[in-house]
Amino acid sequence: MAKQRASGKKSGPTRNASAASFVYVGCFTTPSRLGKGDGISAYRINPITGAWRQIQQVGGLVNPSWLLANHDGNVLYVLHADEDYASSYRIDRATGRLTPLNRAATGGRNGVSAKLDPTGKFLIVANYASGSVGVLPVATDGSLGDAVQVFDLPGGARARHRVGHQGISHPHDIVLDPTGRFVVVPDKGLDRVSVFKFDARLGRLSPAGKGYVDARSGAGPRHMAFHPNNPVAWILNELDSTLTTCRWDGAKNILAPVEVTSTLPGDFTGDNQTAEIEFVAASNTLYISNRGHDSIALFRVNRTTGVPKAIGWQPTGGEDPRLFVLDPAGRFLYVANLSSGTIKRFELDAKTGALTTTRQIIKTPSPCAIAFVAGP
User: Fold this and answer.
1) Strand 242-249 to 254-262 pairing
2) Using an 8 Å Cβ cutoff, are 237 and 272 in contact?
3) Could you read off the pLDDT of 230-284 as tens digits, one per residue?
4) Which of 35, 165, 208, 304 is the most exposed place for a label (fewest CB within 10 A)?
């Protein structure tokens, strides 16, 4: 979902600026999250300029902080920070407007990440506050059923851990390997990444191989990305601002750490936590968001080892870049600067992976989730 580049080039109107027709933005809404938003904002995208025009506001929601559209682009799934349910919305393919379908229990509290399995019949949810992973069935109309499996993540506090962030399990991401047969779960609380097999017929998770790989104490694994073609994966560690390159053995179901890399320039001495990670194979570029340094870090990946080398840091134009995403065409990278209440657009160079700042800034309170839907 992300890319970056530092350049003075100005971007003008271009044809086919975006392959998406609609985009949805979720936000924090509650005082405990310092939220200033109100639900989900829906926008129509100008196909020539890429400009966003708001078409709907779905208000009165509690912290719609994770958004995911299904493959057909006709259903939007929503997780609600600090709550114990997920919700679903029908997307009108002609107008982009949302209509509520239902809500269902995730089997835990504070869902922070979710993915659909390759069949589209199950939604797999990381319950951060409860230390569990829930599997929710998806009906033929796209609505959700209550969790049919809740897998509690085992383990206790490491000898050295960060008070306030760790001590119990806090799964923070749901990632499927390129085959779709394995579910990988970075656990910020246990400094561990769990690996599961997923039975798409039954909707069941079971530990794969050893079942996990440990990170360094206090690292705080948050998010993760796989190389789509090579046996390589990267674990983004939130609390110590590092990136762990791993070899992925899909036959033995094993993640094997290779090297740890800082996400920050060597002269930065301030506080920082990482947030988002995305790999773009076309330019062989890995992108990381730094909160504190307030940048997108760009890395060129070694094609043999998978180990990344820093090639630059792009300022995000705001504070606390909790999320960044790529539009479906891969033309633009959008950064949600949570504390600044802005979404900043950068133009992406498909060959080099570089980012060019643009003039487009969407002002919206406490943005923390973005989902694109391609045109019909």
Assistant:
1) antiparallel
2) no
3) 999 999 999 999 999 999 998 888 999 999 999 999 999 999 999 999 999 999 9
4) 304
pLDDT per position as a tens digit, 15-50: 456 677 999 999 999 999 999 999 999 999 998 888
Pairing of strands 40-45, 20-27: antiparallel
Nearest-Å Rg of the Cα atoms of the chain is: 19
CA distance 258 to 146: 39
Q: Are 162 and 220 in contact (CB under 8 A)?
A: yes
Structure tokens at 126: 């990381």
Q: Give, for 88, the enclosing helix (H) or strand (E).
A: strand 85-91
Q: How remote is the C-alpha of 293 from its chain's centroid? A: 19
Return d(Cα 15, Cα 50) in angstroms, integer. 9
Longest dimension (CA), the chain: 56
Tokens of 286: 């890995």
Query: In which residue are the tokens 């996990």 written?
Result: 212
Going 167 to 161 to 324 to 186, the CA torsion angle's sign is negative
Distances (CA, A) of 266 to 35, 93, 270, 308, 313: 33, 48, 11, 15, 12
Contact (Cβ atoms closer than 8 angstroms) between residue 108 and residue 86: no
> How far is 111 from 125, CA to CA, in rounded Å?
6
Give the separation between CA 74 and CA 96, rounded to whole angstroms. 9
